[in-house]
Design goal:
The complex is a heterotrimer of chains A (about 350), B (about 325) and C (about 350). Chain A is an alpha+beta fold and about 350 residues long. Chain A has 2 domains: about 140 residues, RNA polymerase II/Efflux pump adaptor protein, barrel-sandwich hybrid domain (OB fold (Dihydrolipoamide Acetyltransferase, E2P)); about 180 residues, 2-Layer Sandwich (Chloramphenicol Acetyltransferase), CATH 3.30.559.10. Helix content of chain A is about 25%, strand content about 25%. A 6-stranded mixed beta sheet of chain A has the order 8-17-16-15-11-14, with helices on one face. In chain A, strands 4-3-1-6 form a 4-stranded antiparallel beta sheet, with no helix packed on it. Chain A is rod-shaped. Chain B has one domain: Rossmann fold (3-Layer(aba) Sandwich). In chain B, strands 2-3-1-4-5-9-8 form a 7-stranded mixed beta sheet, sandwiched between helices. Chain B has a two-stranded antiparallel sheet with strand order 6-7. In chain B, helix 1 packs antiparallel against helix 9, helix 1 crosses helix 10 and helix 4 packs across helix 10. Helices cover about 35% and strands about 20% of the residues of chain C. In chain C, helix 8 links the parallel strand 10 and strand 11. In chain C, strands 3-2-4-5-7-6-12 form a 7-stranded mixed beta sheet, with helices on both faces. In chain C, helix 3 packs parallel to helix 4, helix 8 crosses helix 12 and helix 9 crosses helix 10. Classes of the chains: A alpha+beta (about 350), B alpha/beta (about 325), C alpha/beta (about 350). Chains A and C meet through helix 1 of A and loops of C.
Chain lengths: ~350, ~325, ~350
């Protein structure tokens, strides 16, 4: 750096006439320097390779070196520009895909990260995305509805499930679903806190007892409603349940068949399930799950082991609106009614 | 003089108007650019080439013009445009870059175009010469007796377009008058350093057309020579080449230090200021008294002021208007 | 795609001459000026037969003074005429470009729209017959780059007539560039695509509108001029290989039918641009940018260009053939694009 001014202020390089690492001869013009608006040309003092140049615009005290003249070309250049942007180690490598591939991926819901690209340099092409295939079609139709309802129930209720074992005698009751629906309908009349519907944070007890009965179809689980189930005789109830099941499987139920339910009964007993945690059928606040009837040893009044039958009832209630004791009370009342019934129905 | 008085008076009035316009433009051009000259700043941005001293070249043709005659001129166009009767308000507005200008602010001082009267000018040396030939060609097609006047400087006489245009006009016997304004300097290069012969009027013989030299910067001399050439053209006898020795009193452009012309030269020029000389002559011959000339001055100054006021009061074009008028 | 309903066929050269004739026949303000346009009928036949029909007053043979007579065309146009002025070879623009791009193209703008300059500047372009570096260029990229003049370059006889009539009727300066190899001249290599159906009556092809010369679905090839013929040849070859090529004939560069480019690329997702003009800083860059701007999300691969490299066009036949776009180069470019 030539000393330029008497004031001795820092100077700046205004121009380099040789590149980093470039050879130069003695006295060759290599740079221009300016201090306090005075510009001075800088010649190389010796021949060699110009390395470690101070950047243009960086202040350099007068008299300080602006570069080195090396005897050999520098192998590592201080001024080497970064060609590739540095990635922090935690970042995943960018996915190379054509714009069309990215768009198609978005449309089909395909994650490009899992695709091997067949284009140049491993670029993912549209064909690659197409060949990879769309994921399984999203939830559609009834499944989508069920999914939505189940998730909503899961999100919006505080479910607790009570299990209780019902003991039948030596004879297993026939048509347990009809029996339970009938009994529950009657018992619910005395338990209005479990029978009704809620909107937001308001629970509205229902005047009627409209029991929804879960039916498994090929497309999924549906729960058509039996209006005023408490008013139906057991035989009529059994017929209604059978009819609803038939229509459900035939897909001839209508919207009105699903309206107005205040409580739901769902039976997995025929599939060998004992107890389970049924999901509340919004906007109701409780649901009763029915398990399998099992032949078990039982004690008679004298303490002798005799043949008996057992069944587990699972009552899920929404603890936001109903507490455990009232729920248990309902269950007890129901068991009482069930076990008081004759073992066979008409 | 054989010239009708009304022509003399008209020429004098026009010279006064031209000089006043050039002076006022010069004042306004510099007013908001100094102290450190910034060419882009102010009411009149860009370059400015003024024709003070060259008035005779322009006014001499004026009384011989017919409606519809076409004139093409150069980067130093004001005197010619004014002499032809281009709308002074719109011309001033164009110089000031206003929406009401001849070109809606898109051309500026070097690209002034008027439909009536039929005027155009250009910033490229010699560019207007072929265009004048084309105008004359159009007049022939239409069967009118209109003519075209092509104004250019002595510097342009060495441009290829000069040669091609005169050859074409002569070959096809087109009604063009080629008028060379010899103000002795092409920017800083004197004629003797650029042109192989002393007088461009002598080049006319190379094309077989009449060449006339007007050796004084005198509107009467120009009047007579231009009249003859314009009549010749109107009669269908073909083009002429006229060279007029005139004086560029100021620099090539405003801001030009004009150091390449020495003081003696400039003094001599100013001594023979054509406005003063002509005015003196008119007074001497009893055609216009000093009082009448003063009265004329007032009238002409007022016309110039009105044009400038119109320009200053006019709005600038909307910026997006830059996109308009590329295509019809 | 337009289907032309007529049995009559003309070469592109004869179609141009017919267009000029038909307009001159009905509009006395139209005249033609240029070197060898009269007695010779135009070096490339653009005014064949017209001197006999209209006489030397309207079909004017000029001296070799391009600045002079092209500037005169500008002056005549300003003053009510509709001149057709011919620049014999586009390569000669250097001696007169000031009158073209600084004068003809700008006067309408300078005058704030008050003055119209209805000039048609016809000029012959293109190489492929060993006329070497100063007689083989196309240069439409340069003309298109400069504001104020429309630029058209037909590839078919039908378009040639329609664009010429449109150009004559247009109130703006139109640079009408006809490719020598596409004219169907007897003294050039026989080109079957140079002859095509041309309706007898006058008609216009809109300036600024591209034409799908061949519909396809796998790749878009955008091009203009003689390269359209090569692209169509390439498309046939590729068709037999199972690749469906869409050929878009721009027909005009100013105005440029950007919508057509974008629409085609949105359909095919692959783009090849073919240009006989020099590769860098020209038409190929403009088309590719248009596609990127309008159809970025549809591109399945980077666009490819097939153009003349940035070299003076060489004389020796093999050198020139290698340099100019060819059917082979187009096939290779498309193949590389669909397989890569």
């Amino acid at each position: 750096m030539p000393i330029v001014t008497e004031a001795g202020e820092d100077a700046v390089i205004t121009a380099w006439f040789v590149d980093e690492g470039q050879a130069c001869q003695a006295d060759q013009l290599i740079a221009e320097v300016q201090a306090e608006k005075i510009a001075v040309e800088v010649q190389a003092p010796v021949g060699g390779y110009v390395v470690n140049r101070v950047a243009i615009g960086d202040p350099v005290p007068q008299g300080s070196p602006i570069c080195e003249i090396s005897e050999s070309p520098a192998s590592v250049s201080r001024a080497q520009p970064a060609q590739i942007a540095e990635r922090s180690p935690g970042e995943p490598p960018p996915i190379r895909a054509s714009p069309a591939a990215k768009r198609l991926g978005r449309e089909l819901g395909v994650d490009l990260a899992g695709i091997a690209g067949s284009g140049p340099g491993g670029r993912i092409t549209e064909d690659d995305v197409r060949r990879h295939g769309a994921p399984a079609p999203g939830l559609q139709g009834l499944r989508a509805v069920i999914a939505r309802n189940m998730r909503q129930s899961h999100a919006e209720t505080a479910p607790v499930t009570l299990f209780t074992t019902v003991e039948f005698g030596a004879e297993a009751p026939a048509n347990i679903t009809a029996m339970i629906v009938s009994s529950a309908a009657v018992v619910l009349r005395d338990h209005p806190t479990l029978n009704g519907s809620r909107t937001g944070d308001h629970f509205v007890p229902a005047a009627a007892v409209n029991l929804a009965v879960a039916v498994q179809t090929d497309d999924g689980l549906v729960a058509p409603v039996i209006a005023n189930a408490d008013a139906l005789a057991l035989g009529a109830l059994a017929d209604t349940i059978k009819d609803l099941g038939r229509r459900a499987r035939a897909k001839t139920l209508t919207a009105s068949d699903y309206e107005g339910g205040t409580f739901t009964v769902t039976n997995l007993g025929s599939l060998g399930v004992d107890g389970f945690t049924p999901i509340i059928n919004l906007p109701q606040v409780a649901i009763l799950g029915v398990g399998a009837i099992r032949r078990v040893p039982a004690f008679d009044a004298a303490g002798t082991v005799v043949a008996g039958h057992q069944m587990v009832l699972s009552l899920t209630f929404d603890h936001a609106f109903v507490d455990g004791a009232p729920a248990a009370q309902f269950l007890n009342d129901l068991v009482r009614v069930l076990t008081a019934q004759p073992a066979t129905s008409g | 003089m054989d010239i009708p008085n009304e022509h003399l008076v008209d020429m004098y009035e026009t010279m006064v108007r031209i000089r006043r316009f050039e002076e006022r433009i010069r004042e306004m051009y510099f007013a908001d650019k100094l102290p450190a000259f910034d060419i882009a700043a102010g009411l009149i941005p860009g370059e400015m080439h003024l024709a003070a001293g060259q008035e005779p070249v322009a006014v001499g043709m004026r009384p011989h013009l017919k409606a519809g005659d076409a004139i093409t001129a150069t980067h130093r166009p004001h005197h010619i445009a004014i002499a032809q009767g281009v709308d002074l308000n719109k011309m001033a507005a164009e110089i000031f870059g206003r929406e009401t200008g001849l070109g809606r602010g898109k051309g500026g001082h070097m690209h002034l175009f008027s439909v009536e009267p039929n005027f155009g000018c250009s910033g490229i040396i010699g560019e207007g010469m072929p265009v004048a030939v084309g105008a004359a060609l159009a007049f022939r097609f239409k069967g009118t007796d209109n003519i075209a006047l092509s104004y250019f400087g002595e510097g342009a006489a060495n441009q290829g377009a000069f040669h091609e245009s005169i050859n074409l006009a002569a070959l096809w016997k087109l009604p063009v008058v080629f008028v060379c304004e010899d103000n002795a300097y092409a920017i800083s290069v004197p004629k003797a350093a650029s042109t192989a012969i002393p007088d461009n009027s002598d080049r006319a013989s190379a094309y077989g057309i009449p060449g006339v030299l007007v050796s004084e910067n005198d509107p009467v001399a120009v009047y007579e020579v231009m009249g003859a050439a314009m009549d010749r053209a109107r009669r269908g006898e073909g083009p002429s080449l006229i060279e007029i020795k005139t004086d560029r009193l100021w620099g090539h452009f405003e801001g030009d230090a004009d150091a390449y012309r020495d003081d003696e030269f400039k003094d001599e020029m100013n001594q023979r200021d054509p406005l003063v000389v002509f005015g003196q002559r008119l007074a001497d011959e009893g055609i216009l008294s000093a009082e009448e000339q003063t009265a004329i001055q007032e009238v002409q100054y007022a016309i110039v002021e009105e044009a400038l006021e119109f320009a200053l009061a006019s709005p600038y074009p909307e910026p997006e208007a830059a996109l308009d008028h590329v295509f019809a | 795609m337009t289907t032309v309903e007529t049995d009559r066929k003309l070469t592109m050269q004869k179609a141009i001459a017919e267009a000029v004739f038909q307009e001159m026949d009905v509009d006395p303000s139209v005249f033609v000026m240029g070197e060898d346009v009269g007695v010779y009928g135009g070096i490339f036949g653009s005014t064949e037969g017209l001197l006999d029909k209209f006489g030397p007053e309207r079909i004017i043979d000029t001296p070799i003074s391009e600045t002079g007579f092209i500037g005169a065309a500008v002056g005549a146009a300003i003053n009510g005429m509709r001149p057709i002025v011919e620049l014999m070879f586009v390569d000669f623009f250097g001696v007169c470009m000031d009158q073209i791009y600084n004068n003809m193209a700008k006067i309408h703008y300078f005058s704030g729209g008050n003055i119209k300059v209805p000039v048609v500047l016809t000029t012959a372009v293109g190489g492929g017959y060993s006329d070497a570096g100063q007689h083989s260029q196309t240069l439409w990229g340069m003309f298109a780059h400069l504001p104020g003049m429309k630029v058209v370059a037909p590839s078919s006889a039908y378009d040639a007539k329609g664009l010429m009539i449109a150009a004559i009727r247009d109130d703006n300066p139109v640079v009408y560039m006809f490719h020598k190899g596409a004219l169907g001249l007897g003294w050039m290599v026989n080109n079957p695509r140079a002859t095509g159906p041309v309706p007898v009556e006058p008609y216009e092809v809109p300036i600024g509108e591209a034409r799908i010369a061949r519909e396809g679905s796998d790749v878009t090839v955008v091009t203009i001029g003689l390269s359209v013929h090569k692209a169509l040849d390439a498309a046939e070859t590729l068709d037999s290989q199972g690749v469906s090529v869409e050929v878009l004939d721009l027909r005009s560069l100013v105005p440029l039918d950007r919508e057509a480019v974008v629409a085609s690329v949105q359909k095919t997702h692959r783009l090849v641009v073919v240009d006989e003009d020099y590769q860098s800083f020209g038409m190929t860059g403009e088309i590719i940018t248009t596609a990127v701007e309008g159809a970025f999300e549809y591109l399945d691969a980077p666009p490819v260009r097939v153009a003349t490299p940035d070299i003076p066009i060489p004389y020796s036949h093999g050198l020139e053939k290698w340099a100019l776009p060819s059917e082979e180069r187009i096939v290779a470019a498309v193949s590389g694009l669909v397989s890569g």
